[in-house]
Amino acid sequence: MNKKPRKNFTDSSLARLVEICKLxxxxxxxxxxxxxxxxxxxxxxQSIDPTLERGLAGCALVFGETFGRTGDDAYxxxxxxxxxxxxxxxxxxxxxxxGFYNGRTGIFWVAHRLSLLLDDPSLVAxxxxxxxxxxxxxxxxxxxxxxxxxxSAIPFFLSAPHRDLELxxxxxxxxxxxxxxxxxxxxxDTHPCCVRHPVGLDGSSGVVMALLDLYAETGFARFRRAAxxxxxxxxxxxxxxxxxxxxxxxxxxxDLLVQARIHGQPIDYQDLRRxxxxxxxxxxxxxxxxxxxxxxxxxxAAILNRTDLLEPVRPxxxxxxxxxxxxxxxxxxxxxxWGGILEVVLAAAELLDEPTWVGRVHxxxxxHVAASMSRPSDSPHATTELMYGLAGVGYxxxxxxxxxxxxxxxxxxxxxxxxxxxxxDAFAVDRDGFFEATRTxxxxxxxxxxxxxxxxxxxxxxxxCRRVHAEPDRxxxxxxxxxxxxxxxxxxxxxxxxxxxxxxxxxxxLLDPEDIDWEGAELYLAPGVKVVERQFDWDDWADSDAxxxxxxxxxxxxxxGNRICRAPLSREQAxxxxxxxxxxxWSSELFAGCGSTRSFDAFRNLAVxxxxxxxxxxxxxxxxxxxxxxxxxxxxERNSYQTYGHYEALVRKNAGRIHRDLELDDRTLSHFxxxxxxxQLTENLRKLHAFHFFEPLIDAFQAAGDFETxxxxxxxxxxxxxxxxxxxxxxxxxxx
Length: 736
Hints:
By secondary structure, this protein is mainly α. A hairpin with a 6-residue loop joins strand 11 and strand 12 (641-643). Helix 2 packs antiparallel against helix 3, helix 4 (104-117) runs antiparallel to helix 5 and helix 25 (644-663) runs antiparallel to helix 26. InterPro entries: 6hp_glycosidase-like_sf, LANC-like. It holds the Pfam family LANC_like.
């Protein structure tokens, strides 16, 4: 088990790391076969908590990493027993407690890390039982905080070896359900008793980072739009004069809001946070302050290719460095103090190509770490917790001494500099080399490759096109065109699909196939889907043959996440899909034209399967084509034949009734009748899947204390539904 220390650790750093471990252990004997779980040690833990944030998993991580740098078996034994105990206690955590910092995913992550450091795969097997993704009640998750809720589980499930893309998408959709959608942008309720939903990594900004990771992995436009709306909300609370974002948890700001409500004053949050005596509460912590927001913006700049998001980052990092260097006794704990900020500085130094920042951090930490290791009873280091105590100081030293030590602020991948264009970037992920299959085929056909082929995919594509067209022999040119056809088609799809938003909106909502009247449905190939017919079978080209066999074969190109993937097709499947290259109605004639040997029911099942996989889309016929379905659905409440158009008519009717009854002077509308009308309108909006657009207005109606105010709120709802919403299709589609 012994390992050599890493060379990039200085002797002083290792000595301090060992001293921290000894402070945590106290007088416990760690001789071979004698270590016992230190539950009786008053210095060790006030309560038995298995999590990464406050408990056993966090300390196990520090001991395991220390073993990896010192080779001391004693620390390896401590790490193993701590994580085994944490795994046992994880079974007692609530099923909904899956966050990286305060739940099961963090414990599993530590177990996997220690299995590598200790060369013990059994730790992962034990942790998998405790994690059990099938038990996660996704629909019942209510706390979206990054550090305090389930949001941090998303990057965990997006990364190997615990990758579960389906579960990560479900968690992302749950975040969309919990979003508060307002004119200021979208936000999430991550912290109680705030004047507004807070920004920061444990506020709405942390949710944005998880949604961006999902968008980068899947390409689903709904996650990108939610992330961009969250960034827009965050920008509302940036104070240029302070170079920081206001901390919306400030109790003084909350008091001002309460006073405004008591006196019936109109509330303007932008003016309210600037009025005297309130000057604004700002902090630089990674949980709710500027450093955490900078971390999110660096990730957003890389994924969205928006360098404008980086504008505040450099001055904030420089300010943090100056404060760290000038501080007298800074705390190096991770959660609320400088340890977490140092993680952000390290990420920014790599992203912005500022290696001198790392040196400045090293010098400052060397000067301050001794003070952070002192533990008076009132010190923040009196505990041993990773996020709030002495173990966090040790992990800070580990991160500074060895870049291989993973960051616990970003359980996924670290931010990378933005790349342009996005299509090039995404194609490169799924290309198996830039047109490598085409180049291999050309070499086997005796085509000399040009020296120094371009690394840029766009230039490589142009070069291959020129070579094919320059071939003088017609028969040979046909062979080259066929070899190039598949990858040329893939590149063309990417060149046309740098943004998935429009294509995704056209395909949403995806109806239950059992609710579709297939006999009258009109289908077409979904955006980004293409059937490629090749005359030669390049995948079955034997080494002994001069050229591939002349055999017609079909390949399907389709978008999956942020990639264009391919899959082989049978002739029957290819002809079936080609029948819908242009919108075509489902019919027995179409079935006969495909030359299928299947039964009509089997043919229908094939269509259903391809619709579920979004290879086929339903054509829209109505004015609100991107949303209001014209195909029949069966309502579970009445088991009757109805359409989305029917719900649209009901919504219009409800809104018109409210407007008419409130405006007529000769009719008295009771409080009960008004509540019932708004309730009916709400239920029909839910059936039309449009409730979230009106949720703030309906919430304001329910919160109104007197009948007169309720009438005013009801007028707003009716006017918005009946006279603004359904008559402006562009607005509807842009907000979809």
